[in-house]
Design goal:
The complex is a heterodimer of chains A (about 70) and B (about 200). Chain A contains three helices and no strands. Chain A is an all-alpha fold and about 70 residues long. The radius of gyration of chain A is 17 Å and the shape is flat. Chain B is mainly α. Chain B has two domains: about 60 residues, no CATH class; about 130 residues, no CATH class. In chain B, α1 packs antiparallel against α2 and α3 runs antiparallel to α7. Chain B is globular, with a radius of gyration of 19 Å. The chains are: A mainly alpha (about 70), B mainly alpha (about 200). Chains A and B meet through α1, α2 and α3 of A and α1, α2, α4, α5 and α6 of B.
């Protein structure tokens, strides 16, 4: 039950992202699509390096690093 | 001290501690502290170095320069590089030495390309950017807080770890499945390419 609520929480946030992007695509002049928004904030070096670091870390974490601790018996 | 902000060429002059820069610096500092707290010392040290570097760069008025202009490459070059990276990451065993070397190479290359001044853009109304940035910031913070909360709960109640899965716990079985790994690497590389914007127009 608790696990379902937790997974539901993740899905709710992802659904929010999808809805936000659908709205943005239909009204770009009042709500910028995510690529335009990122383009805008990434004119700043700190934001750009922050975004790229987050992206790289995501790959590092899931492709190379140990994502979950081995089960201790 | 003149009051200036970062410009489209990314070459902000002092004083460039804008709200955006301050918030991003705080986010990176929190990320560093969180990684160190959870025992991922390599990740924590990398983020700490990056945060310090960006703070020094901001304080000194963006004087740290690696490239003079944004890098733009023909699409065939980009396709070749991304294709080679994808192939290596998809074939190499997960968590292995080849993955480590590839990720370090990607990290260094992206850091150098990302440090270069930004490319010019076609502007939309400021209110459109503001609404979008606030919405995505709220959603992003919500995801990070939810994930961190599950990590903390699973840490303090290890016998109930199954009930509080982090994104890593949920995604790990998918990544152990070879097609899942291929999908993840493909999406990850495309996202990175979209963020870097290094391709030239056809």
């Amino acid at each position: 039950m608790i696990r379902s609520i937790v997974v539901g929480g993740y899905l709710l946030i992802v659904a929010g992202m999808v809805v936000a992007e659908i709205i943005a695509r239909s009204k770009p002049q009042s709500f910028a699509p995510v690529d335009d928004m990122l383009d805008n904030i990434m004119t700043n070096r700190t934001a750009r390096i922050g975004m790229l670091a987050a992206w790289w870390w995501f790959g590092w974490h899931f492709i190379f690093a140990q994502t979950i601790d081995p089960l201790v018996l | 001290m003149p009051q200036t902000h970062s410009t489209a060429d990314g070459l902000a002059r002092p004083n460039s501690w804008t709200v955006s820069v301050t918030l991003w610096t705080i986010v990176l500092a929190i990320m560093s502290a969180f990684q160190l707290w959870r025992g991922a010392y390599v990740d924590g040290v990398l983020f700490s170095i990056l945060t310090i570097l960006l703070v020094v760069d901001t304080i000194t008025g963006r004087r740290i320069k690696l490239l003079r202009s944004p890098v733009v490459a023909p699409r065939w070059v980009i396709t070749l590089v991304i294709g080679a990276l994808a192939l290596v990451l998809m074939i190499a065993p997960r968590h292995g030495m080849v993955d480590l070397i590839t990720m370090v190479v990607v990290g260094v290359a992206v850091f150098i390309l990302g440090w270069a001044p930004a490319r010019p853009r076609t502007p939309l109304p400021a209110k459109a950017y503001r609404r979008s940035a606030i919405t995505w910031a709220v959603l992003g913070v919500a995801l990070c807080v939810w994930e961190a909360l599950m990590f903390i709960l699973a840490t303090v109640m290890p016998h109930r770890e199954f009930e509080f899965p982090t994104v890593s716990v949920l995604l790990d079985p998918f990544l152990e499945w070879w097609p899942g790994k291929v999908i993840f690497i493909g999406l990850w590389l495309v996202a990175g390419l979209a963020l870097l914007r290094v391709w030239s127009k056809p």
